[in-house]
Every structure is written in C-alpha cells, then in structure tokens.
C-alpha cells in the first residue's frame, strides 16, 4: 500500500479491533454503536472503495439485518471487490439472500465458487451452498456438498464419505 493510503495496517487493525469487540454488543444499542464504529472507519476510505460497502454489509449482516446487507455486498462486488474478501462477500451475500427468501440467487452466486481457486473458504462455500440448496428443497444436493466438505477432515472413513457424497447426486441408471 502507498504511504498516505487510508487502507493501511493501522486501518485494518482498527477494523479487526471493532470486530473483536463486537461480541460485547449484544443489545440493539450496542449493535447500533458497533455499526457506527464501522461507518466511521468506512468514512476514512475513498468514496469508490469496495471495502466500505463490504465492511458495512458485514456489520448489518452480523447484527441481523440481511435485507440491508445484500445491497451493500452487491455494491462492494460491483466496485471490484475481489480475492479473499470478494469470496467472503459472495459467501456472506448468499447466506443473506437465503435469509431473505432468495436462495436461488445464492445458489447462482456460489456455484461458480465450487471451481474457483481453492483456499481456506472452500468449506464455507460448500456449507452455505448446501443451506441454500436445502432452502430450495434440494436436500440431497445440499447433503452431498456438506458430506463432501466434511470427508477430508475425518480421521477415518474419508474415502467412504466422499463416495457416499457423490452417490447422493448421481442419477440412477
């Protein structure tokens, strides 16, 4: 990052500190205060920064307002949020879309992430996609994704669980 760039380690550290303190914000006044802290940090960013709407979406989402989060996630992605935070935005937006009754859109948003560059968010993609599929009555597909994500973490039966996951969605001959 360039010197003078508002998005520096200090800014990132203050965002991390705000989120660390979030657990103490159980009541609605505390949640509003938390969102105000995030808004103040966002105000330090350039007007066209994709990080601003992303952080605000996360704050609204985490305080139970999926309906207010979705447009902000859309804005962050439209402004070019990419990489790790872009993938987080897609996962979180898909979850929010499911929460507001738009699970089909969540499926469309996350399905390409199944073949995206692999990272530590792969299981979160699968878990969230499984929830969206279940909301659409596609439980076998969702269970297949969940078992497929779980299988590599098991101390035993990895191959069996991976095979069972595949069998759930294979068409019968």
Notes on the protein architecture:
The chain has helices spanning 9-22, 28-42, 51-62, 66-78, 83-99, 103-110, 122-135, 139-150, 158-169. It is mostly helical and 173 residues long. It has a domain at 9-100: Alpha Horseshoe (Serine Threonine Protein Phosphatase 5, Tetratricopeptide repeat). Helix 2 (28-42) runs antiparallel to helix 3 and helix 5 (83-99) packs parallel to helix 7. The radius of gyration is 18 Å and the shape is elongated. The termini are far apart.
Supply the CATH superfamily name of the domain at 9-100.
Tetratricopeptide repeat domain
Order of helices and strands: HHHHHHHHH
CATH topology of the domain at 9-100: Serine Threonine Protein Phosphatase 5, Tetratricopeptide repeat
Anisotropy-based shape? elongated
Structural class assignment: mainly alpha
Low-pLDDT residue intervals, each spanning 5 or more residues? none
State Rg.
18 Å
CATH class of the domain at 9-100: Mainly Alpha
Biggest sheet architecture: none
For the residues shown, what is the average pLDDT? 91
Instruction: Please state the second-level CATH architecture of the domain at 9-100.
Output: Alpha Horseshoe
Can you count the beta strands? 0
Assess the beta-strand content as a share of residues.
Answer: under 5%
């Amino acid at each position: 990052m360039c010197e003078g760039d508002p998005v520096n380690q200090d800014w990132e550290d203050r965002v991390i500190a705000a989120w660390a303190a979030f657990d103490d914000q159980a009541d609605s006044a505390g949640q509003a205060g938390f969102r105000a802290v995030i808004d103040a940090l966002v105000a330090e960013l350039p007007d066209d920064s994709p990080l601003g709407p992303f952080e605000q979406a996360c704050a609204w989402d985490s305080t139970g307002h999926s309906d207010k989060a979705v447009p902000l996630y859309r804005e962050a992605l439209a402004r070019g949020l990419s990489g790790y935070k872009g993938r987080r935005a897609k996962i979180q937006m898909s979850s929010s879309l499911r929460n507001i009754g738009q699970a089909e859109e969540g499926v469309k948003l996350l399905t390409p992430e199944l073949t995206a560059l692999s990272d530590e968010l792969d299981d979160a993609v699968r878990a969230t996609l499984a929830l969206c599929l279940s909301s659409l009555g596609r439980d076998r597909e969702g269970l297949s994704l969940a078992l497929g994500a779980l299988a590599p973490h098991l101390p035993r039966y990895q191959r069996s669980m991976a095979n069972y996951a595949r069998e759930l969605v294979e068409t019968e001959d």
